[in-house]
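Researcher: Re-running this chain for the archive, since the previous output was lost when a drive failed. Same request as before.
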Amino acid sequence: MERRAFLRSLVHTGASFGLLAGCGHEHGTSLRGQGSISPAHLSGLLSGRPPKGMEDCPRNWNTNAWARVCSATHSSLLRIAIVGDTHIGEADPHYGKGRYEQALREIGEVNPPDVVFHLGDHHTTGAASEIRQVLHIMANSTVPVIAVVGNHELYDSAGRRNANWAFGPEDNYFDWDACRFVLLNNAVPLRDPSKKAPYAAYSGFSEPQLNWLARVISDAKRRRMYVFLFSHVTPRCHHQNHNIGQVFDYSYSFPVLYNYDPRRFYKLVGEYDKIAVCAYGHQHLYKAETINGALHVVAGGMGKINSDAAKRDPGGAFLRAWQPHYVELLFDQGNGDYSLDLFTVGSRQPDPAFHLEGHAGA
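Model: Regenerated structure tokens:
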């Protein structure tokens, strides 16, 4: 189907979940604490009324995109591209519509993957006009794009409603053969009670979310499925055996306080030997580390270059990881082997300094 016709069809179909019958999809209802969602927000979502400015925009983008994934022919070798933090609407030249379009174009032309996961911060303010640009870009991608929400989608109730309408449930999962792909929102901005700063922290994973995640993982374990987790904000942990918090502690970057203890999340991930990848954005860089057999990746690389990091490693591999980039994961469902590569936008070639190979559950 021509891409413009596909976008029009989304507007008219209303993104029915019935589209996914028979393609291995299961829908996981969001169990986020409702204290951060206003009754008006819930009422608007449940009534099916589109937010202002979104009347002719498609609803539940992720459901329809996953239908495209399922309708294609695949082998046991999955190819997944991961991007993050495109910030459509930002005036900074390192952000923007053109760079995102270029990245998706390159992804579709050079060893096209089966699916692209965007890790959040698609746009800047959450305005309907920005969401419309994001939907247009994704509709013109030759590869289906799945959207995770980031803090820039959630700064106010209007932006959150727009994102919920456009992308679908914030916490969700999709099944595909022997793999389960889980989306989790951990990026709700929390206001600073002292009012010294607009926002003091991001929400992290709530107890209801983690209870839901435990059931999702337990069901996948029963089916012996590989699990892939996608969230926006990098968890922080200072437990000696889970030192990803120290490795990912970029205190010289934008300082954000994480007001929750992520050890239960790491415990859930560590208890199942078929957790394949946990991917996060938010930090505008690339970093990967294996913990308890699971690959944890920060891939917020469509964001702007951080000048402090550039000073730390002028001309080196670390600096190249701060250039606008995306990553591609090649995963073998048969044996759990994977390889991960970083592509700088415009290069069309993987950077050998960041090539990584491993095995899920190793």
